[in-house]
Predict the 3D structure of the following.
Amino acid sequence: MSDNKENNYEDAAKRDLEKRESEGGLFEKEQAKRESIDAEMASSEPEVTSLGKSSDWQKKNEDKGEEFKMGWHNIPVSQFPSGGLFYPENIRIQIRAATVKEIRQFSIVNDDDPFSIDEGMNHIMSSCVNVNIKGKISNWKDILEEDRIHVVLAVRELTFKEGENKMEIPYECDECGHEGKMDFSNDNLVPSKVKDDIMKYFDHDERIFKVKTKSSGTLELRPPTIGVMRVITEWIKDNTQTEGQRKRIDQGFIKCLPFIVHDWRGFKKEKIKDIQVDFMGWDATKYSTFFHVVDMIKVGVDANCHSACSNCGAEVHTPI
């Protein structure tokens, strides 16, 4: 009897999903709601775009002991790659221009070392980003990992208002063969959206996905915040020091871990061992279901930069 009820529930949910999809995408509706909220909270700041190679940040000014005297500017989460889906409605995020000192600090980043780049970006985030969630201790670590690049680009655009030190990526047009360059900017990055057919499991109050299964209970998932990923990154560094460690590390666990932990507060490297022990006890059904949902709720930006050919106007794209 319980199976019949569950099947009836799933059938009803499916019909409801199809009805709402015919009226418009569920993700798009949620994002439109987020944009409406942002419009009420945000000031009339211009949209921000642009980025340069980390070593270019020092070119803005010689170090004369001066700092930019810029104020804080609202940045709406509805413009993030995630569309603001996983943020509370009362969140307020502000950015400011980087100072000469911060530019100089970012300029020593090793562009060939992903860990160094990660630390450099987090330094900019910690210095130039302010996050406020009403009734909750909050900071830049509450921003989603996949939204970080958008925020860093926005900080850079605010810092270099005249468009200095643009980061341009070469392309070759498939239509006319023209070779040109496009800006590496938020305008030319295409977000990857959550699949509409998983939105029926989204809890709008807790801002997470709750997927009911027959054999594994309710799976709760959400994309990781910067705070969560900082702890995981340090744990990965500690456990990949030698070739033997790198061979033994469980790639499946690494893929799932960021979506298991929902809050960076109180999350430490020492807790990951306990999570891994529990993960090893998952059966094949729970593992495959969780893996599948992870792929469906991923957010971020496409791996290519997109623009229009400066010669013929055709759409062109090139790997970031």
